[in-house]
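Example record

One chain of 308 residues, shown exactly as stored in the release files.
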Amino acid sequence: MASTTTADPLLTYTDDIEPRPIPEALLAARRDVMAAVRELSTLTDADMETFWAWKGDGENEIRYGFYRIFEEFERAGIDAQTAVRASGLERGRAADLIAPATAARWDLQGILIQLPDAAWDADPGDKQWTVRETLGHVIGGQRSYGAVTAWWQAQGLPADSNLPTARPTAIHDALPSDEEEAAGTPAEVRARLNEVLDQSTERLAGLPQERLAHGTRWMGFALDIGFRIGRWSSHFREHTIQVEKTLTMLGHTPTEVDRLIRLILAEWGRAEAAVYGSADEGEAVAALAATAATARVTAAEIVRIAQG
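Predicted structure tokens for this chain:
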């Protein structure tokens, strides 16, 4: 998890909200997913038509191995939703609003994980941001969304035109700059992206529903906290499109393997959204963890077949 201090406004202004740490079983599942992706990334498009004796009674191209993992994640998301409904445990409106952000996060990670390091700092021209600069903004924006949301909900003000118009400058001044957020290797920046979203979720997913109606300002508009939390997902999506446009300007064309890995991670994100922000570590999370472990085995098997 990202390092914090007692001056961190996200922590300071949520000290009366019960935190919801990301379940260890979900973190372990993510490690299995990323291990599977690392295995799959060693394959090339030329490997895709290698035959795979799936289940031992018939053959299919190992290309289907990617789709098989996708299908398993799709089913796991459905099973997780069923388990959540059966448990009767309501994770709450705040967590429901946050959950789509993890689907958006993993779709973006699906692009980033396959990028060559040089692409992060390549200048697309026309005064457009590099991939690294865009990620610095995304991470800084998410950290700001968490901290400023925490501050506004603590004020307990109604969402009307009488809201203060002044920006909470002290909150923004306490946060790292976008340049600081973008520093490090691509792997470090991708990890920071995960850490910042998870920390925001841990501190705000348990926000009582009545506080979602408290007032906030966004781009000068008087709105409510529910709107601000709902912006997390669309902010990721907005800049995912920006990264795609940047890569087009750089002449970068994803391979079939790249596209399939993104497909897999995007589906994992949709499955994870079924449980993200919940305080429960029950059957729903266990269903995801079991499927992630199976995906890791499948990935290793098709790589072994492809590489002889």
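Notes: The radius of gyration is 21 Å.
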